[in-house]
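Request: Give me one sample?
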Amino acid sequence: MLRLFPIFIFFLFLSACATVDDEDPTEGLTVEEVYRDAREYLDEGEYETAIEYYERLESRFPYGPYAEQAQLEVAYTYYKSQEYESAILAAERFIKLHPDHRSADYAYYLRGLARFDGEQSFMARWFSQDLTERDPKSMREAFRYFSELVSRFPDSRYTRDAIHRMHRLRESLAQYEIHVANYYVRRYAFVAAANRAQHVVKHYQGTPVVAEALSIMVNSYTKLGLHQLADDSQRVLDMNYPDYQGRER
């Protein structure tokens, strides 16, 4: 029996720790008080604690406007703490649960913002990496998220900024295609280079890199001996960008 005593003490200690860990800091508080405290933690930058309080609020008071607002603000708190994937998941959960909520447009906007800023953060960390080695999936996804906002809520207060970010994303995607085309040129893969540049001309009209795309087409078709296509591309380039200084044929 004496040998079992230390084991008993050990499990008693574990039980006490579990009790402390499971203690609910919101116990005894009203829904208004829990929400107030969560907001204070959010405003003070204590994001982990704010998320805990929002989740406790939803668990204890699962129905009503405070629970709905907590679900939305959890997404925002994840975004502020740069946990972008969690922010996207939380925003999508809110959209699924409350598609007709008065703040649904903000959830769509926040989802796009999280993907957009997550991509910008990634590019800032890896700015020295060759763009042709990056997957533009995140940029396309951010564009799609903002596009859904603009389509569903054309009069939303967030639509104007979403459109502005869509323009930036479109330019970045076009630039990515140009980097890939130049990658092919450097490896004498002129068919692939011409096709990639043609994709830019067709799908990214109005972006600053269209002239360079036409120039790549001229160069690639010339190297391939497709002189009629090269002449046609040069004609379009001269007509639309007469001051462009690109590579010589």
Remarks:
- Residues 7-20, 123-127 have pLDDT under 50 and may be disordered.
- The longest helix spans residues 159-186.
- The chain is about 75% helix and 0% strand.
